[in-house]
Structure formats: structure tokens, C-alpha cells
Amino acid sequence: MRFSTRARYGLRAMVEFARHYERGEPVPLIKVAENQGISEGYLEQLMTSLRKGGLVRSVRGAQGGYLLSQGPDKITAWDIIRLVEGPLDLTECVNEDEQVLCDWSNTCVTRVLWQRVRDSLRDVLTQINLADLCDDAERIRRSKEADMYYI
């Protein structure tokens, strides 16, 4: 199982917005694209999903860009991934809305395993919010600075 670039880039973009949340200033997508090495066009596609899902709002104009619609501590990794990736359906018989799509679902010996994997993944992603990711990013930045050796 692998998350697509939509999930990875969506999370990285949202961390950029979270880092500017306290200032209350919209962040232009060009700035996010430059900071994260992501195509601006691709970011536009992601922003459509995130805006429609209510996680960001856009501000038009010369000083425009995007803002989080709520605090970074209120937006989880799960919220973001669900909006940009869609439902987390690991197999035909184990999907988010619990629809039975497989003829073997009532007798499948691995169905319980796939349910546990799905639930565990959701649990981890709902426990991590944007504020946590910003804290992690800051810790990484500081550790890289500490590793620098100047002559």
C-alpha cells in the first residue's frame, strides 16, 4: 500500500499554511510551491479538494493566497488525506462505509486482518494534527542547524 503524491504534497502544503496560521496572512501558492518543490498547478488541484472540504479558504487579490479555516490543532492528517485521496478502501471487502462488495466477505479468513489494518491506520492519522507536524518540522530544522559545523 502506498499513498499517492496527493497525500504527501497535500500534507506538506497544509503544514506550510499551519506555520503561517498565527499571522493570519494568506499564503500564496507560489510560495508553497517554491518552499516545498511542488508544481503550482498540482497544488491548485489539491487546494480545490481542501477548499471544498472546508479545511482552507482562499483570499483573492494581490495579497491573496490560502489560509487554514481553523486552527492547526483542529485539522488532523486523516482529514487532509481523506479529502485529497478519497476513501481508504484497502480491499473490496473492507472499505470505510462497510459496504459488502465481495462475495467472500462473510467467510473470508483475512477480512478481520484488513479491518484491523484500516482501523489502525485511521487511528494513527487521526491522532496527528497539523500543530504536531509543525512541531516535528521545527525539531528537524533545529537538529539540522545543530549539525552544521562552521569554520
UniProtKB/TrEMBL annotation:
SUPFAM superfamilies: Winged helix' DNA-binding domain (SSF46785)
Top-rank lineage group of the source organism: Bacteria
Cellular component, GO, one term: cytosol
Pfam families: Rrf2
Entry keywords, A to Z: DNA-binding
One function term, GO molecular function aspect: DNA binding
InterPro entries assigned to the protein according to its UniProt record, in alphabetical order: TR_Rrf2-type_CS, Tscrpt_reg_Rrf2, WH-like_DNA-bd_sf, WH_DNA-bd_sf
Protein name: HTH-type transcriptional regulator CymR
Lineage, highest ranks first: Bacteria, Bacillati, Bacillota, Clostridia, Eubacteriales
This protein's encoding gene: cymR_4
